[in-house]
Amino acid sequence: MSRRQQLENIIIGTLLESNDERNYFDDCKCLVSQDMFLNEVNRRIYGFVWEMNAKGMACTDPLSIFNEYGEKVMDICADMMEVCTYYSFIHLKTEYNERRFIRSCIAGTDYVRTNVQFIDYVKQFVNLVYKDEEKGSN
User: Fold this and answer.
1) What torsion do the CA atoms of 119, 122, 126, 132 make, to the nearest 10 degrees?
2) How far is CA 51 from CA 4, 15, 25, in A?
3) Could you give the C-alpha distances from 41 to 48, 54, 120, 132, in angstroms and in order?
C-alpha cells in the first residue's frame, strides 16, 4: 500500500470517528476535496461526511452515516467499519504511544508522547496529491 493510500485511509478512518465534541472534518474541509481520493469507497464516504457536515451534522460515525443514508450505504458498511477500526488516527496514535511507553520502560528511558496531530496527516495527504498531479500520475 502506498503512502498516499495509507493517508487516504487514515483521513477517512478518522472522519468516521467525528462526533459533537471533536469534528475532524474541520481539519479537512478547506484542504481536501472528494476527487482527491483514489479509492472509490473512500471517495463515497468523504462525500457522505461532507454532505452531513453541510447539514450541520458533526457526528459522522458509521452508524450515523447508515442512519442518514440507509440502503444507499449498505454496500460499504463493512468497509466503513474496517477503515474506522484499523486506520483511525486516534487508535493509531494511541497504539504508537503505548509502544513508546513500553519501550521506555524496558530501556529505562524517559517516556515522551508524540505530538503529531491529525492535521499533519491531512497536510501530508494534500502534498502527495499535488505531487502526483505534477507528475501526471493521476
Assistant:
1) 140
2) 24, 13, 11
3) 11, 20, 23, 20
Reference 44, options 74, 21, 23, 18; nearest CA is 74
Whether 42 contacts 7, CB under 8 Å:
no
Flag whether pLDDT at 138 surpasses 60. no
Assigned superfamily of 3-135:
DNAb Helicase; Chain A (1.10.860.10)
Torsion sign across C-alpha atoms 57, 45, 80, 29 = negative
What cell numbers appear for 9 in the block?
Answer: 485511509
Tell me if 76 sits within 8 A of 42, measured CB to CB.
no
* Global pTM exceeds 0.85: yes
> For the segment 39-91, what is each residue's pLDDT rounded down to a tens digit?
999 999 999 999 999 999 999 999 999 999 999 999 999 999 999 999 999 99
Contact 14, 59 (CB under 8 A): no
Calculated CA dihedral for residues 35, 37, 41, 43, nearest 10 degrees:
-30
